[in-house]
Automatic annotation (TrEMBL):
Protein name as it appears in the record: Malate dehydrogenase
Function according to Swiss-Prot or TrEMBL: Catalyzes the reversible oxidation of malate to oxaloacetate.
Lactate/malate dehydrogenase N-terminal domain: residues covered: 6-155
Gene it is expressed from: mdh
Organism expressing this protein natively: Serpentinimonas raichei
KW Oxidoreductase (keyword) present: yes
Length: 328
C-alpha cells in the first residue's frame, strides 16, 4: 500500500538554496523513494519573491515527480507551517562579501521568533525542524525558545555542511574514498570556530589519526580550511554555498528521518549537558539516528586541544545567544 503523504515546509523557497533543494525533496531523495510529499513553500510577502516562487513551482510541475502529492505557495508562516511534519528553515538574509555574522544575527533574529511561534501554533506536534539560515545555531535556538509547546529536541541546526566538508578534506589528505571514512565529529557552532574532530575517525576500520599524526596540518590547514570554506566559496562564486548547502540539508533530514545504521553524523542539537555544554545550547555534536530520533554520541575522551577548541566555539555561541536574549 502506498504511504500517506507527509507535509514538508520550506522557507526561502525561491532562494538559491531553495532552488537546489526542492527538486531533490520532491524526487524522494530526502524521505525515501516511497514517501509522497506535499510541499508548503514560504516566501516573503513581496511581489517579486512570490512571482519567483510561482516560477519554481511551475518547474516542479514540469518535472512530473510521482512523489509530489501537492504544492502550496505561502507568504505567512501561520499557513505555511500548518500541520507540517518537516520544516526546513532556509529563508533568511545571506551573508555577503565582508559581512560579519553579528550583523546577520540582528537581521535574522526577528524572522526566527515569528517562525518559532508559528510552528508552535500550527505545526504537527512531532515536526522535525532544521534551521539552515545563518547564523544557523542561534536561529534554531531562537525558534526553539519561541515554540515552548513543541519538544525542544525537535529543533536542530545544520552542521552537516561542515561535516561533509571535513570528510572531503580528510579523503583528499589520505587519498581514500569519502565513503570509507567513519566516526567524524564536528563540535559547536556553524561558523569558523566549529571544531572538526578526526581523532575518532576510521578508514576501513583503521584509525585516521594513526595514519598521519600531524598536529600542524590539523591546526593550520584542516581546521582553517573547513572553518573558512563558506567564506572561500563566497569569495570564489560571489554567492554563498547553495548546492552543497542543499545537499547537506537533504543528508541531515534523511538521516534523522530514516536513520544512520549506527554511523555518526553531525547535527546541531539542543545540548542535554553532554560534554559540559550548558543545557539547551544549540551545539554541533556527533549523533547517531534511529527510529526517527537522534542520540548524542556520549563519553568520548576530550583532550586539551579539543577542549580548547570546544570552549572557543561554545563561547562564541553563548555570546550570540546573549545577543538575542531580548527577543525571547
Ligand atoms: N547552515 C549552513 O551550512 C548554510 C547556511 N546558509 C544560509 O542559508 C540562507 C539562505 O541562503 P540562500 O538560499 O543562498 O539565500 P537567498 O538570498 O538566495 O535566498 C533566501 C530566500 O529567503 C527568502 N526569505 C527571506 N526572509 C524570509 C522569511 N522571513 N520567510 C521566508 N522566506 C524568506 C528571501 O526572499 C530569499 O528568496 C542564508 O542565511 C545563508 O547564509 C548558506 C549556506 C550554508
Ligand atoms: O558562510 C556563509 O555565509 C554560508 C555558509 O554558511 C557556508 O557556506 O557555510
Amino acid at each position: 500500500m502506498s504511504k500517506k503523504p507527509v507535509r514538508v515546509a520550506v522557507t526561502g523557497a525561491a532562494g538559491q538554496i531553495g532552488y537546489a533543494l526542492l527538486f531533490r525533496i520532491a524526487s524522494g531523495e530526502m524521505l525515501g523513494k516511497d514517501q509522497p510529499v506535499i510541499l508548503q513553500l514560504l516566501e516573503i510577502p513581496d511581489e517579486k519573491a512570490q512571482k519567483a516562487l510561482k516560477g519554481v513551482m511551475m518547474e516542479l510541475d514540469d518535472c512530473a515527480f510521482p512523489l509530489l502529492a501537492g504544492m502550496e505557495a505561502h507568504s505567512d508562516p501561520m499557513t505555511a507551517f500548518k500541520d507540517t511534519d518537516y520544516a526546513l528553515l532556509v529563508g533568511s538574509r545571506p551573508r555577503g562579501p565582508g559581512m560579519e555574522r553579528a550583523e546577520l544575527l540582528a537581521i535574522n533574529g526577528a524572522i526566527f521568533t515569528a517562525q518559532g511561534k508559528a510552528l508552535n501554533a500550527v505545526a504537527s506536534r512531532n515536526v522535525k525542524v532544521l534551521v539552515v539560515g545563518n547564523p544557523a545555531n542561534t536561529n534554531a535556538y531562537i525558534a526553539m525558545k519561541s515554540a515552548p509547546d513543541l519538544p525542544a529536541r525537535n529543533f536542530t541546526a545544520m552542521l552537516r555542511l561542515d561535516h561533509n566538508r571535513a570528510l572531503s578534506q580528510l579523503a583528499a589528505k589520505t587519498g581514500q574514498p569519502v565513503a570509507s571514512i567513519k566516526n567524524l565529529a564536528v563540535w559547536g557552532n556553524h561558523s569558523p570556530t566549529m571544531y572538526a574532530d578526526y581523532r575518532f575517525a576510521t578508514i576501513d576500520g583503521a584509525s585516521v589519526k594513526d595514519m598521519f599524526n600531524d598536529h600542524a596540518w590539523n591546526k593550520d590547514v584542516f581546521l582553517p580550511t573547513v572553518g573558512k570554506r563558506g567564506a572561500a566559496i563566497i569569495e570564489a562564486r560571489g554567492l554563498s554555498s547553495a548546492a552543497s548547502a542543499a545537499n547537506a540539508a537533504i543528508d541531515h533530514m534523511r538521516d534523522w528521518a530514516l536513520g544512520t545504521g549506527g554511523a555518526w553524523v553531525t547535527m546541531g542539537v539542543p545540548s542535554n549537558g553532554a560534554y559540559g555544554i550548558p543545557k539547551e545550547v544549540m551545539f554541533g555534536y556527533p549523533v547517531t539516528c534511529s527510529g526517527g530520533d537522534y542520540q548524542i554520541v556520549e563519553g568520548l575522551p576530550i583532550d586539551a586541544f579539543s577542549q580548547e577548541c570546544i570552549n572557543k566555539t561554545l563561547a562564541e555561541l553563548q555570546g550570540e545567544q546573549d545577543g538575542v536574549r531580548h527577543l525571547l
